[in-house]
Amino acid sequence: MASLEQVTPIPAERDSAPDDRPRTFRRSNWATVFLAGVHALAVVTFPWELVSRSGFSDFDTYVQTFTLLAPLYPISAVDWYEISTLLGLYTHEVLWFDGVMWLTSWSGDPVVALRLVSFAIVFVWGLYLFRSIPYLPAVLFLLNPASIDVALSGLRNGAAWGLIMCGLMVGVWVIRLPLFVISIFTHSTALPLLGFHYLANALGRRREGGRALVVMLSAGVVVGLALTVGNAWLLGAIGDRRIGESYVVGEGSLLQASLFAILLVLQCTSDRSYVRRHLLVIGLIAWYLVMNPFIPWSYRLWAAFLPVIAVAAWNLSPRRRRLFLICYGGYLTIQYFYWSKLFYLWYPQ
């Protein structure tokens, strides 16, 4: 199966388009599938509500919504939202609606349907990462609280970007392209991410690593500003639901931004071969850093794509990788403290 092939390292100056498939670690196909399945099952069945102090509000909202809509099946998003244009299909993310409605009808319970989506998301993450880096650091990346929130609550974002991750693992375009198209109508942020992917591929075919880096950073900045400073103009023009002061509210995380600013600096100051190989991640982090001061849930940009970012971090030179892992370990410790109910033990209410 093409998506589970072992990938051999590329010579440092090979003149080809970069991608974000694993390059530095090998594990057998069946071991990868097994580990990914066990990990996904463990994450989905673990009682995270006993750990997280903020809960999973998006999941609760999804359950309420699809519980009310389930008796109307087989109604589609097109009928429910009265959509008549391709732009409407995109902004209403119709395949998410129809997919969960079908799963709810099949399983008989929206909770089961949504848990199946969570399992699929975490399973894809495991497939991508467990064949890329050793098990222990892979688990430390996958058990990031922000990624757990995406997998168990921010399901629409996680599902769409998980489809893109599947596409990155598949070498056959007739399979990859439908996955990419489906992702666009599952969550609208998939479209700019795919734009970054194809731009990174185009830039990676050129030897000018410095120019490619500037273009990719600029693309991240432009998209980030368009969705924040230009929110009312851009999203208002297309009728997207993420418009106005209810979306651009400020209060982004300085701690998270600091960690990924460090990673971005380490990446941008790496050798030309590394930069060309990981242009997609560089653009994504620039996008996130611009959005972070404006939108508190912009963390989902990196949390939903953390396996790809983790591979990029692991492929840093040993010294740079060691520095980033030390920073990440400190960040993860602090994040778990504030994310978990340990915060209440320290600051009782």
SSE string, helices as H and strands as E? HHHHHHHHHHHHHHHHHHHH
Low-confidence stretches: 1-24
The number of helical elements comes to 20
Head-to-tail CA distance between termini = 54 Å
Q: Mean pLDDT score, rounded? A: 87
Helix proportion range: 55-70%
Number of strands: 0
Characterize the main sheet: none
Rg, alpha carbons: 20 Å
The domain count comes to 1
Shape descriptor reads: globular
Percent of residues in β-strands: under 5%
Structural category is mainly alpha
Give the secondary structure arrangement, pairings included.
Blueprint: H1 29-45, H2 57-69, H3 77-80, H4 86-91, H5 94-107, H6 110-130, H7 135-142, H8 145-152, H9 155-169, H10 173-184, H11 190-204, H12 209-226, H13 231-238, H14 254-268, H15 272-277, H16 279-291, H17 300-303, H18 306-314, H19 318-339, H20 342-346
Helix pairs in contact: 1-6, 5-6, 6-9, 6-18, 9-10, 11-12, 11-16, 12-16, 14-16, 14-19
